[in-house]
Amino acid sequence: MIDLPSDFWNRPAPETLAALDATPEGLSAAEAVRRLEFYGANRLDERRRRHLLADLVRRLANPLVAILLVASAVAGATGDLASFLIITAVVLLSTGLDIEQERRAEAAAEALRRSIALRVTVLRDGKPCDLAVETLVPGDIVKLSAGALVPADGIVIEANAAQVNQAALTGEPYPVEKCPAPRRTSTMGEAPNALLHGSSVIGGTVTMLVVGTGAHTQFGKIAKALGEDRPPTAFERGIRRLGILIVRLTLFLVLFVLLSHIALRRPPLESFLFAMALAVGLTPELLPMIMTIALARGAERLAKARVIVKRLSAIHDLGEMHVLCTDKTGTLTEAHITMIAHFGMDGADCARVAELAAINARFETGLKSPLDDALLAHTAGHSFDGWAKLDERPFDFGRRRVSVLAEKDGRRIEIVKGAPEAVLALCDRAEDPAGEVSVLDQSGREAIMALHDRHAARGLRMLGIAWKDAEGRARIDTDDDDGLVFLGLCVFMDPPKSSATGAVARLQSTGVRIKVISGDAAMVVEHLVGQLSLSVAGVLTGPEIDALDDAALAARAQSVDIFARVTPDQKSRIVKALQARGHTVGFIGDGINDAPAIKAADVGLSVDGATDVAREAADMILLDSDLNVLADGVMEGRRTYANIMKYIRMGTSSNFGNMLTMALASVFLPFLPLTAVQVLLNNMLYDLSQAGIPFDRADPAEIARPRGWNMSALVRFTLIMGPLSSLFDIATFVVLTWIFHSGVGTFRASWFIESMATQILVVFIIRTRGRFWRDWPHPALAVSALSCLAVALALPYLPFAALIGFEGPGAAILATIVLLVFLYLAAVEGLKTFAMSRRESVRTGPPPTHRQRRSSRPRKGYAP
């Protein structure tokens, strides 16, 4: 593409034409063909679809998945067909589900391509031609009228009352006036002579010079960002860290067993198979299934609340989220302009102001602007009987007003509606609320502008209303609008959603910090934040962000909660800057300009009524406008995380404890405490016993604050509970060997029963931080756990028990095992508060105050 300077839109039309070697008459057909070959078609680059096999390999490279596949291979090699089939099926099921969900997001770029106009009027060889937008090239002259979509990035060279809606790209809900005159601005979206690909012309006509096409437009950059591979989310990063932890524990135990057995001259093959069985025993085979069931349950609950969950793991990320970045328009506000007041000279509501403004809007021809629609909606019940239109002078950028000549009961008046400062400059008189007309002096003008400024400071948009007698006139054929009588102002706003205040309050009360990121002016955003009673601190604007590198932005983003006049690229930078500081970030938006940030976030959210692009980029879509659904989703995510952590805590600690015991015992006992097949059977039964965890409830304390993957806390829990389990296992070994002098078959059956009882029953204690008898588990968990325990107790007494190396123990041994299990469970109940340290939470205590935010230094793992 042509290398244009960053401030290209700040230059006058002749300079822009010269820079592109173009003329107001357009390119020649031959030159257009040459440029099309050089620049390519004006369409978004299609993303090369990743091959299914490449997707599969990428997921299998995850350490946890790799461990499970190795465990599956070992199980098959040792003859444990059941474990081989279960582990393989679980891995393939969870991996296939992930692939299917992620590929749905690839429709985002296609949605972008469908949203642009198909044909456009272009000057070629000085003549207008109706051509496909794909044929546009830099240097083309394009003519657009009301209702057209802007097909490329361009510079205005002619305009007649042109108004453009670019809310989806910039977040500005009000129509923007466009004209050829440049004005020095910091962003292209603010420039009055710049047109953005994907915006729409809602009034007037415009002629533009094409300066960017296809992927080189602002629109194209967004599409390109959506086509890039998504960085790992918080959930995926946590699973990877867990996999690495299990790999380290597994390597430690396997090497210990192999080296010690080799030193003791044990049979090599038997030692190797036992070591491999220990490795399998340490792997949480059913973790993918437990996670999938838990997340699917969360998705089912959210579906009842009318939330579409496109990526299951986003439910966990939503619960871990402790920073929510939100767009303003369409998410916190209704994205629907409403007239809220119509006051006269004294600042009080005046019915005559609304009446004359509505007559002007009603008789105005062409497409209505959102302000006209709001005005007519506000006066929908008013009768206009008797009024007749005689003539009109439409809005144009130079006049910045609309004039309508109307008549009622034989009296003709000209009604003018437009920018307050433009209308006021033409007035020499004013009408007070009593209907009296008097001379408008300087003090009166200052009073009107002071009234205007007070409302503008609140982020409100206004129109000035004026009139004058038009006796004997039938047309408005000259610009004779001077000598007007100023009547008053109509005030408009984009109101906040009725549910927004309560929803953001709920989120803040549960430890989620809200950051508002908008393309609107800082003053407008601050006013909205005040209406929503948001607790925020600091403001950072787009130009200020441009002056910061990524490291500086990450530091500033920590303490700033309002980001104004930002571009789509800057929204993504803010999200990534927060992630760089260790935050789990959510982003909710509804426009094209929000899509890159939605995708970059750990959990991307959109709302019903959002653009196709925003919905496709999102992980979740709220079908109802009530943002309390989002707060409910956060609680559901935390509940899901709490249940997944129950399995991980118990799986790692119990497996580590039992495998550590067997590794130690295998060195000192003259025989293996369990054979490889028995180890795998133990692990499979234990995993199946936990299948009811996804249905369980969560402690209120577990979901009160954001919680994330904390490997140090998990290691702490494992190093406390694992050795505790080993201590009682060793006690069992001592009793069986020195007191009961058990044979090999009885020893293995007895320890198998003790091991299964301690592993399975401990779930009822560890599942809650409180006393276990005060919080009973979900029936599904009770059934799955107790059923598997019953199978484990019965196995040594079944007719085929000898085939798997078991000989049923007698009543005295069983009574001793019951006592040891009871003592173990009592010890766990006493130690669990210490083991389940509060340091596992991402943040403790209430959100910091403004003073704390400014003064505290961020710590690793702590979200200020």
Description:
By secondary structure, the chain is α/β, with parallel strands linked by helices. It is 48% helix and 15% strand. It contains 32 helices and 23 strands. The protein has an 8-stranded mixed sheet with strand order 8-23-22-21-9-18-20-19, sandwiched between helices. Strands 10, 11, 12, 13, 14, 15, 16 and 17 form an 8-stranded mixed sheet that branches. Strands 1, 2, 3, 4, 5, 6 and 7 form a 7-stranded antiparallel sheet that branches. A hairpin with a 2-residue loop joins strand 12 and strand 13 (411-418). The protein is elongated.
SSE layout:
Elements: H1 13-19, H2 29-39, H3 52-60, H4 63-77, H5 81-104, H6 107-114, E1 119-124, E2 127-132, E3 141-145, E4 153-165, H7 167-170, E5 176-177, E6 194-195, E7 200-212, H8 218-227, H9 234-263, H10 268-282, H11 287-304, E8 307-309, H12 313-320, E9 323-326, E10 338-343, H13 351-363, H14 370-378, E11 388-393, E12 401-408, E13 411-418, H15 420-424, E14 427-431, E15 437-439, H16 442-456, E16 461-469, E17 484-493, H17 500-509, E18 513-517, H18 522-531, E19 539-541, H19 542-546, H20 550-559, E20 562-564, H21 568-580, E21 585-588, H22 595-600, E22 603-607, H23 612-617, E23 620-622, H24 628-668, H25 676-689, H26 700-703, H27 711-739, H28 744-761, H29 763-766, H30 779-794, H31 811-835, H32 850-855
Parallel strand pairs: 9-18, 9-21, 14-17, 18-20, 19-20, 21-22, 22-23
Antiparallel strand pairs: 1-2, 1-3, 3-7, 4-5, 4-6, 4-7, 8-23, 10-17, 11-12, 12-13, 13-16, 14-15, 16-17
Short description:
This protein is an alpha/beta fold and 864 residues long. Helix content is 48%, strand content 15%.
